[in-house]
Automatic annotation (TrEMBL):
Residues 101-210 form the Fe2OG dioxygenase domain. It comes from Plantactinospora solaniradicis. This is 2OG-Fe(II) oxygenase. Residues 1-22 are annotated as: Disordered. Its EC number is 1.14.11.-. InterPro entries: DUF6817 (IPR049202), Oxoglu/Fe-dep_dioxygenase_dom (IPR005123), Pro_4_hyd_alph_FE2OG_OXY (IPR044862).
Length: 410
């Protein structure tokens, strides 16, 4: 379905269903490349909560280079876990609209989200993000703005070439509006300088199901795994979905990523070699099921915890859960020797068993270790691991501490 541009130079707008009905789509426009526009994406209540969160609870850091100057949200995981906004359900609804609009099949196990803010003078230059296994194949950009301080400028422009004057479509920044885009070498876009107001946007990435991706059975000879745990991974599809780890981002973008189960099995092997407890090793094997830190490839939603708990036991499932929701920047030891931390989406610090907290960090380090040397550490990350090793001390196997220091050179 296609239609004539409206006064914003974009496709006729339509409303995204709020009851989970994926049959509602948006008008598709082919010029300069396939895109569409939606109004009332979240609805009044949820878009209002999202605006409040972005303006009051979000943490921002400025980013500036030759291409853009903007603010990036550094606590996006809190938004994902925030019950008031319920952004997860919105992402799934959008997946249905993308399928309807672009006539594709979206992989709902793989969704990524980021948030940006542009203020006066900030902009994004002309660029495209070509799909290559790591970058998404489709994108939805949700606009959020205060009704009392509307954004002037900050138009999303869809271009025919890299020259700013070659704009085919200009889409004004309007509260609760979404722009859907199909990414390719043609999907050039930019944002004009903001003249006034705060331009908030939620950028969500989606991947189409890759018909060329085949399920890759686990090599049991290389890494022997408990049979009941491997059955869980196979049943949830861990052998049939690619692992979009950070080692892929630095590799040749034409290389085919390995299956998620290969990374999980490797993490399990690292933990076994370190002498970690069996439950910690099991949680390491399953640590990606709720998604890496709550985003990316998620084979189970966190509200399906009972499914995993019944399959692997309460302690293993709790460690897998904590891996996804633990704010790893907040842990501390109180004066009475208790460990305190914060869970994502919650405001208050909570007391947590030190052994559980140490196990979550151990799994995280094992995941990074499994990807070495393809994924190195920044100096800040090395300092962070060193500080945690000292904090947990007797709760971390000596073999793990020695291996980390040797591998990453700190």
């Amino acid at each position: 379905m296609s239609g004539r541009p409206d006064d914003h130079g974009a496709a006729p707008v339509s409303t995204l269903s709020k009851d989970g009905d994926d049959r509602v789509g948006a008008g598709l426009v082919e010029d300069p490349y396939p895109h569409a526009v939606l109004e009332a994406v979240l609805g009044e209540a949820e878009s209002g909560e999202l605006l409040r969160w972005l303006s009051e609870d979000a943490s921002w850091v400025v980013e500036s280079n030759d291409l853009y100057t903007q603010y990036r949200c550094t606590n996006i995981l809190d938004l994902i876990c925030c019950d008031r906004v319920r952004i997860r359900s919105a992402l799934l609804r959008l997946a249905g609209v993308l399928e309807q609009t672009f006539d594709v099949c979206i992989d709902r196990r793989r969704v990524e989200i980021s948030a940006h803010k542009l203020v006066r003078g900030q902009y994004i230059g002309a660029h495209t993000d070509m799909p290559h296994g790591v970058t998404e194949t489709h994108r939805a950009v949700i606009s959020v703005a205060s009704p009392t301080a509307p954004v002037v400028g900050g138009e999303l422009t869809l271009l025919r070439s890299e020259h700013p004057s070659d704009a085919a479509v200009r889409i004004a920044h309007s509260h609760d509006r979404a722009v859907l885009m199909e990414l390719s070498d043609r999907s050039l876009h930019a944002v004009t300088p903001v003249r006034s107001g705060s331009r908030y946007s939620i950028v969500t990435g989606y991947w189409t199901v890759d018909p060329g991706w085949e399920s890759v059975p686990h090599d049991h000879q290389r890494t022997p795994l408990p049979r009941h745990l491997m059955r869980v991974l196979e049943r949830l599809g861990a052998c049939s979905v690619p692992h979009a780890g950070r080692h892929v981002r630095s590799a040749d973008h034409r290389a085919k990523p390995r299956p998620l189960c290969a990374h999980l099995a490797g993490t399990y092997a690292v933990l076994r070699n370190w002498g970690a407890e069996p439950d910690v090793c099991a949680a390491g094997l399953l640590h990606g099921l709720y998604g890496p830190l709550g985003i990316g490839t998620a084979l189970l939603w966190i509200d399906e915890r009972d499914v995993l708990r019944k399959a692997v036991g309460a302690r293993v499932e709790e460690l897998v859960y904590l891996y996804s929701v633990l704010d790893r920047r907040s842990d501390e030891v109180s004066a009475d020797g208790l460990y305190r931390t914060r869970l994502l989406g919650r405001d208050l610090m909570e007391t947590i068993d030190g052994a559980k907290l140490a196990a979550v960090f151990l799994i995280s380090w094992a995941s990074r270790r499994e990807q070495a040397p393809r994924a190195g550490l920044s100096p800040g990350e090395a300092d962070e691991i060193t500080a945690r090793l000292e904090l947990f001390d007797s709760l971390v196997p000596d073999r793990a501490a020695a291996d980390l220091r040797t591998t990453f050179g700190f």
